[in-house]
User: Which sequence fits this backbone?
């Protein structure tokens, strides 16, 4: 849905805000760079597997899974396009990923899309660093081997692009945008900031 809205020139955040004016029965769900944690990326697929044993096909679970799994690639493609508009190739570009936790203000890396995004960026030749106040280092896990240390936030201006993956409340996004050359925002964390440096993803 997020990708479709971007292609159609529709602001998904305005759509959610408008839907929230309904006087009852509204629960907001916000898009991001993918899903992480121990539940959503894993548990629905167990249900789907079991349903098939009883002759049912849970198409909605499969479709949601496909969309969620495609989001890291979409983030990388958006970052590449944003850099290209500034005359910078992704190969050789310096990218700082803000936040590797799967959601704000937690010290949990399980199934975090950030790990896949970092590996994809590296695979395409980008020089990638990260900052996360909850993780001084990131080593290796079931699906990744990064062996990285958190980069101080005051070095944000040294990067070609700052990619907002996790909108931790400790981050001062106004200051980050001021320092950065380019910001790709996957969480709408910069919604209150007017700047030509910001690309929403």
Assistant:
């Amino acid at each position: 849905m997020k990708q479709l809205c971007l292609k159609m020139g529709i602001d998904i955040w305005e759509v959610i805000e408008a839907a929230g004016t309904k006087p009852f029965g509204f629960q907001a769900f916000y898009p991001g760079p993918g899903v992480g944690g121990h539940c959503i990326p894993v548990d629905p697929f167990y249900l789907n597997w079991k349903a098939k044993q009883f002759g049912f096909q849970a198409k909605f679970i499969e479709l949601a899974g496909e969309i969620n799994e495609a989001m890291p690639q979409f983030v990388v493609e958006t970052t590449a396009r944003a850099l290209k508009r500034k005359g910078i190739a992704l190969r050789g570009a310096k990218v700082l990923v803000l936040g590797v936790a799967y959601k704000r203000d937690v010290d949990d890396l399980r199934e975090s899309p950030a790990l896949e995004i970092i590996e994809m960026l590296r695979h395409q030749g980008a020089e990638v660093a990260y900052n996360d106040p909850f993780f001084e280092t990131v080593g290796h896990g079931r699906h990744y081997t990064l062996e990285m240390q958190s980069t101080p936030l005051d070095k944000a201006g040294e990067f070609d692009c700052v990619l907002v993956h996790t909108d931790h409340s400790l981050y001062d996004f106004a200051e980050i945008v001021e320092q950065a050359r380019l910001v790709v925002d996957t969480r709408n964390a910069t919604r209150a900031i007017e700047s030509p440096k910001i690309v929403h993803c």
